[in-house]
C-alpha cells in the first residue's frame, strides 16, 4: 500500500504514510493500526501529556482536511455538469457500466424471485446515481450526502420518486451527514453503493466507515465501490482534499476492513484524459469458489510428452 505518490502541486511522497502524516499530523499512523493503538498507552504522565498535545493537533488538521473539502464542493453548481467536474458527458457511459456490473450480482446474491430491495447511495450528490440507475433496481433508496445544497437538489430532482406506495421504487430518506460520521440503520440495506466520494476519507476513516457500515447490510448484502484509480501509489488533490488510490492500495485497505472482493470490473467508454475507474463488489465473508468439478489446465501449461 505504501508505494510512492504525489500531490497536485508536484510534491513527491515516498509512501502514503508520509503523505498522511503531513496532511493529518503524526498521530495518523497509530489510528490505522489496531496493534499501534494497543501499544499507544503512555508509560508516564509526561508521555501522556505529550501524546494529548499531538492528538489535539492531529484533530485540528483532520477538521481542516474535511472543512476544506466541504468548502470546495459548496462552491460547485448543483447540476450533473457540476458534480461530474465539467464532464457531464460521462453520465450515460457511467450508468450503462454500473447497470452491467450490478444486474448479474443482484441475481447471483438474491435470486430472481421478487424481493423488496433497499440501497444506500453514499456521497449521493444531487441524486444523479439514484435517479438514473439505483431506482431501476431497488424499491427504496436512501441518500447520504454532506453538502447541503446538493442534497436539497436531490430532493427536488427525486420529488416524483417519493411516497409512492409500498411496492414502488422511491427515494426514501435523505441524510445530510459526512461518511466519516455516518452509521447506517442495522440490517436495512441489500446494497450500499459508494461512488466517487471515498477519496475524501483518509485511510483510518475509510476503515472505520466500512466497519460501521457492515452492520447496515442484510444477509447476502454487499458493498459496491466505484472509484477513480491511480496508475501507481496515489495522487493527492490539494484543491478538494481528495486522494485517488491505486488498485493495490484499495486492496490493502479492503483487507484491513475485513472485506473480500466478490467481483471487479473496469468502467469503459470514459474520456482518455480522465483517471481509469473500477467497480468493486465487496462482501464480509470469503466468497464461495465456483467449481464445476473439473480441473482446467491453463492454456499455456506444458504438456506431458508421451513416449
The best one-word shape is globular
- Percentage of residues assigned to helices: 25-40%
Structural class: alpha/beta
Count of helices? Answer: 10
Strand fraction: 15-25%
Q: What are the secondary-structure elements, in order, as H or E?
A: EEHHHHHHEHEHEEHEEEHEE
Largest sheet: 7 strands, mixed
Major sheet: arrangement of strands: 5-4-3-6-7-11-10
Oligomer: single chain
Radius of gyration: 21 Å
* C-alpha termini separation: 49 Å
Find the count of extended strands (DSSP E, 2+ residues).
Answer: 11
Whole-number mean pLDDT: 87
Structure description:
The protein has ten helices and eleven strands. The protein is α/β, with parallel strands linked by helices. The strands form two sheets. It has a seven-stranded mixed β-sheet, sandwiched between helices. Helix 8 links the parallel strand 4 and strand 5 (170-175). Helix 9 (203-213) packs across helix 10 (247-257). The longest helix has 30 residues, at 45-74. It is globular and about 50 Å long.
Question: In short, what is this structure?
Answer:
Helix content is 36%, strand content 21%.
Descriptive labels:
MeTrfase_NTM1, 10 helices, transferase, globular, 36% helix, 307 residues, SAM-dependent_MTases_sf, four-stranded mixed beta sheet, seven-stranded mixed beta sheet, Alpha N-terminal protein methyltransferase 1, methyltransferase
Amino acid at each position: 500500500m505504501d508505494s510512492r505518490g504525489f500531490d497536485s502541486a508536484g510534491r513527491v511522497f515516498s509512501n502514503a504514510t508520509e503523505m498522511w502524516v503531513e496532511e493529518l499530523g503524526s498521530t495518523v499512523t497509530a489510528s490505522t493500526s489496531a496493534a499501534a493503538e494497543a501499544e499507544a498507552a503512555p508509560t508516564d504522565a509526561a508521555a501522556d501529556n505529550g501524546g494529548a498535545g499531538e492528538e489535539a493537533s492531529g484533530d485540528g488538521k483532520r477538521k481542516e482536511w474535511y472543512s476544506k473539502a466541504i468548502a470546495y464542493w459548496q462552491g460547485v453548481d448543483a447540476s450533473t455538469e457540476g458534480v461530474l467536474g465539467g464532464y457531464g458527458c460521462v453520465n450515460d457511459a457511467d450508468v450503462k457500466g454500473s447497470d452491467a456490473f450490478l444486474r448479474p450480482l443482484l441475481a447471483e446474491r438474491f435470486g430472481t424471485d421478487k424481493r423488496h430491495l433497499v440501497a444506500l447511495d453514499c456521497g449521493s450528490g444531487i441524486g444523479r446515481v439514484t435517479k438514473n440507475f439505483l431506482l431501476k433496481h431497488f424499491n427504496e433508496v436512501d441518500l447520504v450526502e454532506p453538502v447541503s445544497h446538493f442534497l436539497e437538489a436531490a430532493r427536488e430532482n427525486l420529488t416524483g420518486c417519493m411516497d409512492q406506495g409500498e411496492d414502488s421504487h422511491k427515494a426514501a430518506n435523505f441524510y445530510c451527514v459526512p461518511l466519516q460520521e455516518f452509521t447506517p440503520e442495522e440490517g436495512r440495506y441489500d446494497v450500499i453503493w459508494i461512488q466517487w466520494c471515498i477519496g475524501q476519507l483518509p485511510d483510518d476513516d475509510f476503515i472505520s466507515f466500512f466497519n460501521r457500515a457492515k452492520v447496515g447490510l442484510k444477509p447476502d448484502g454487499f458493498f459496491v465501490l466505484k472509484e477513480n484509480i491511480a496508475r501507481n501509489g496515489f495522487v493527492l488533490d490539494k484543491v478538494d482534499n481528495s486522494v485517488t488510490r491505486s488498485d493495490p492500495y484499495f486492496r490493502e485497505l479492503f483487507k484491513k476492513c475485513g472485506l473480500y472482493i466478490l467481483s471487479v470490473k473496469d468502467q469503459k467508454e470514459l474520456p482518455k484524459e480522465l483517471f481509469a475507474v473500477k467497480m468493486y463488489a465487496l462482501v464480509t465473508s470469503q466468497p464461495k469458489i465456483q467449481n464445476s468439478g473439473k480441473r482446467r489446465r491453463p492454456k499455456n501449461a506444458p504438456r506431458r510428452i508421451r513416449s
